[in-house]
Amino acid sequence: MRAHASVLHLDLDAFFAAVEQRDKPSLRGKPVVVGGVGGRGVVATASYEARRFGVRSAMSTREARSRCPHAAFLSGRFHAYRESSRLVMGVLRSVSPLVEPLSLDEAFVDLEHAGLPDLEVPTVTGFAEQLRARVAEATGGLTASVGVGTSKFIAKVASDLDKPDGLVVVPPGTEVELLRPRHVSVIPGVGPATAERLRRTGIHTVADLESVSLEELVRLLGRAHGTGLFALARAEDDRPVVPEREAKSVSVEGTHDTDLTDRRLMEALLTRQAGEVAARLRKHGLSGRTVTIKVRLHDFTTLSRSTTLASPTDRTTTIARLARGLLTDLDTSGGVRLLGVGVSGLADWIQDDLFSELAEEEDEEETPVEVEVTTGRRRPTWAPGMDVEHADLGRGWVWGSGRGVVTVRFETADSPAGPVRSFAEGDPALSAWVPAEAGEDPA
């Protein structure tokens, strides 16, 4: 931990849904759910109005509709999210050269390099308030919750304490007091499985965890995980804010409208995905040692299996062969709705060996099998929420579509709530609208 509260964590509130409400005046103050809109869709983000009905991220869209049927269910506009994120990261980088983005909607900022007169609590509190105001101004009104603490861990915990649109600064010396009454899941790395394992031994809060010896935690969770939790339960975290975060893995996955039951088809899909992963590795001059497959079964149970090579590879043949081998150990007879292949343990080199020429020949022979499947990633021509433009009526967004008809609400972020009109799907006056310059990715 640092001597001063000089690590700031900023988290944009209900980011995707907030962008939609900003750009669609008729949805402001109303429940909005962004994610997959089909029967197998999953919620990416829910507005706070929708959360009051129990809608949460990662929930199936089907359940979200049953809980909040009157919400607006939108497919998402990633160009708008990327642009808003770019603006936010620009504001953060203008105050400190050490900004570590974690995703489109959150980042750490090192205040030791922000040029402040001092790092006392009143100073960093005032600075954080000004930063939140600058983010809102730059993004047209998006709010952010901010936490400031003596470490990344404490700053991230603090940013969750007063959502939405909140600010919490944790004074030095009060970190353990803050953590003790909280559930163990507040600690990074304590997911449902680890929390359940700890619960079975009577560990519910951080205070409970703090009372357990290092030896006992290592026995329960393994050396790396147990040692990490032992330190974090005592608020011990010295990780620096790193402006450039290297990719830890490269992966490709696809969700399918109809459950897959044909093993040969699954193997063909894994082979194709392995080829895409390998191509991305080679494009960035990377290789990896660990090959992982992800399989989501018909009942939403998600399984993963991995294997590790002695040296890193970027070859399609090797990745595909290992991925298919991992599939053989799984029971997929009930049907599979998602398949994915990933490579981790990344390196910027490949082990030279005497058989490299043979391996290259094998790669050439690994011809991806042509398969025709419908994936959940495909969007209908007129997806709910997408931006459109009419030759006479101007810009708007798709309210809904079906049976040859597209219904559009004509409004933008700078207009009042607009009228709703319907058109034939093939109306030549109606077209998708994409900004001329969407901006570069923020991180």
Could you tell me how far the N terminus lies from the C terminus, measured between alpha carbons in angstroms? 26 Å
- The CATH architecture of the domain at 249-365 can be given as 2-Layer Sandwich
Question: What is the typical, i.e. mean, pLDDT?
Answer: 88
User: What is the makeup of the main sheet?
Assistant: 5 strands, mixed
Subunit structure: Monomer.
EC number: 2.7.7.7
Binding site for Mg(2+): 11, 105
Keywords: Cytoplasm, DNA damage, DNA repair, DNA replication, DNA-binding, DNA-directed DNA polymerase, Magnesium, Metal-binding, Mutator protein, Nucleotidyltransferase, Transferase
Structural description of this entry:
With 443 residues, the protein is an alpha+beta fold. Helix content is 33%, strand content 25%. Strand 10 and strand 11 form a beta hairpin. The two termini are 26 Å apart. Its cofactor is Mg(2+). Its EC number is 2.7.7.7. Pfam families: IMS, IMS_C, IMS_HHH_1. It catalyses: DNA(n) + a 2'-deoxyribonucleoside 5'-triphosphate = DNA(n+1) + diphosphate.
Element layout with pairings:
Blueprint: E1 7-12, H1 15-23, E2 32-35, E3 43-46, H2 48-51, H3 61-67, E4 72-74, H4 78-95, E5 99-103, E6 106-110, H5 121-139, E7 144-149, H6 152-159, E8 167-169, H7 175-179, H8 192-200, H9 206-210, H10 214-221, H11 223-232, E9 249-260, H12 263-283, E10 287-297, E11 302-313, H13 316-327, E12 336-347, H14 356-365, E13 387-390, E14 394-402, E15 405-409, E16 420-424, E17 430-432
Parallel strand pairs: 2-4, 7-8
Antiparallel strand pairs: 1-6, 1-7, 2-3, 5-6, 9-12, 10-11, 10-12, 13-14, 13-17, 14-15, 15-16
Helix pairs in contact: 4-5, 10-11, 12-13
